[in-house]
Translocation protein SEC62 (Nezara viridula), 377 residues
Amino acid sequence: MADKKKSKKKSDETEVIEEIKPSKEEYEVAKWLRNNVPTKKTKFLNHNVQYFTGKKAVDALMASTWGTSIKEGDEPFFTSRAHCIDFLDVMLHNKFFHRAKKVPINEELLKGKKKGAKDEKDKKTVKEDKDKKESLKDKKKKDDGESSHAEGKGQEVSENEEERQKKKKKKVRLEMHFDQFFADNLDAYVWIYEPIPPHYWLFGALVVMAGIGVCLFPLWPPSVRLIVYYLSIAAAGFLVFVVFLTVVRTIVFCFLWIVTLGRHHLWLFPNLTEDVGFLASFWPLYKYEYKPPVETGKKKKKKKEKLSDNEDEPEPDQKEPEVVEVVEEVEDTRIEEKEEGEEKNEGSGSESESSSQQSQTGKDFEIVDKAEIEAQQ
């Protein structure tokens, strides 16, 4: 009884391990779909993938030779749309493609902004749009006198801009769908099957033939073996020359760096060890750079002290306080002299009216004739 139970368990395990292999028709349909059904590129789990929609795949198959009979009386491979959907569902379970879920991407989510910032920005944009609309209305009212031709052009431009904004494609990312079955709708199906292109087979065959030819080197003619011998010596010499150049360029760089205390940098064949093409690695021939010495902490402190000393010194344009005091004393004496002249001329009304005038600047001054000065003397 125990042996029978063990044998049953083993048979169950083999049934689980065995998988249904895809048929030739499935491979042919997959190749045809890859070449004829339009696909789009996007990211799926941080990988660039291609996907197609289920409805377009079914439409393309039903309109092709797979869904229509070439000769009269012959039945097509897909007799109905339901038959085509069932066949594609089998292909999905055989891992030619898998179903995915479309998730739209917002630009704000890509930038990683918070919801509160989004709401505030939305409010600001709404206010700005309202202000712009109001300003545009005012301008339109003012510019009513313009020609109708110019107005028509402006309307066409605004309509074209709106159409362009509507035509902008929405970005989409894909996520794994929990329900894996094929449906005749606009769901996304990511390709897993990638047919091997024919040139891959050709290159692979050439590599195999080259390996066999190298193994048969002792059987080659003597002249061919001599040519291969010289070519191998030339290749080895070229490698030795490249190594010699790398050593020489490092010696030259170190010598100049030591002599000039790190100020002059000279590299021969600077791209020799860079990840570039064959010809680009030998061009340019040299690269020279001059790097001034770096200032230490003590030198920086000395410069700061000099700058502070220069700031403390008085500027030549600035007036000294002594000069200002002298000017103030002169002004006081002038005011006292004017007051004494006014007291002397209080008796003469006509003369005082003409003499006591004030300027618009607020400073008092007297208009004196020569005859009055001579009479006073």
